[in-house]
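W.,

You were right to be curious about this one. When I first looked at the sequence I had no strong expectations either way, so I just let the prediction run and decided to look at it fresh. Below is the sequence, 283 residues in total, followed by the output.
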Amino acid sequence: MPRPPTRPSRERAELGLSVATAFPSRLEWFERVDSTNDVVAGWLRDGVPEVCVAAADEQTAGRGRSGRTWTAPSGGALLCSVGFRPTWLDPERAWRLAAIVSLAMADAAESEAGLAPGTIRLKWPNDLVIETEAVRKLAGVLGETDGLGTPDARAIIGIGVNGAWSRTDFPAELADSMTSLGEAAAGRPIDRYRLLADFVRRLEARVDALREGRFDAEGWSTRQLTNGRPVRLEQPDGRGQTVLAVGVEPESGALLVAGDSPEAPPRHVLVGEIRHLRLGGVV
C-alpha cells in the first residue's frame, strides 16, 4: 500500500514564486514520496484544480515508460509531476501536454546550466537528451491520463531531470547512456529549487498559449534530435525495426519515418519507442 508523502519541505513562496497568482494552483516539494505522479493523482481525485505541481528530493517507487523504474539518489535529480484537467483540450491532442512540459523544462534547464539555447534536444516521444560524443539521456517524461473526453478528464506529466550528478556516480548499467545538468554545466552549480521555479514560470506561458489554441510546433519540431537519422524503433509487443526518421507531425504528435520506396509518402508512427539512435551510420 502506498505510503503517504512526508510533509512538504518547501512551498511556493520559498521557491521564489508569487503567492498572488493562481498558477500553479498547488505546489509542494517533499523530501520523500513513493511517486510524484501518485501525489498529483491524489490531489486531482480530491478536486484540486489545475495546474498543480508536486516535487520531491527522492522517490521510492518512481515510474518510467513501459513498466520501467526511474531511480535517482536523494537530491540528485529534479523529480516533479504536473497535474492537468484538460477538458479544454481535444483528447487527440492531449500529447501536447507532455510536449509543453518538455519544452518548458528544456528552456529552464539550459538557463540553469548556462547552456546555449537548443543544446537540450528531444528524442521522440518524450526523452530530453544532450548530444556530445554520443546521445545521452538527461531527463525522462511519463504521461498518465484518465477520462479524456469527459468532464472529469485528468492528465499527469511526470518528469525527472538528472541534476548535480557526477559521471563517476552514475549507475554502471546506465553510465554510457545518461548525463546530467551538472556534467553538461562543466562544474557550474545546479540549484534544483531555482530550476523548478523557472520551469513553472515558463510552463505557465505555454499552458496559456495551448488554452488559446496555440502550440509551439516549430519549437517542438526543431528540438527533435531524430530528424533525418536512422533509429531503432521498438513497438509495445517487442517487435523492432530500423527506420529513417524524417520528422514529426505537430497535429498528431506522430514520428514521421521514410516510406518503403523513395516515392512513398512518410509513414506516421503514433506508438513506439526509439531505443537506439546513433550520430550517423546504421543503427
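Here's what jumped out at me. The first strand starts at residue 8 and ends at 11. And, maybe more interesting for your project: The chain has two domains: 8-222, 229-277.

Coffee later to discuss?

I.
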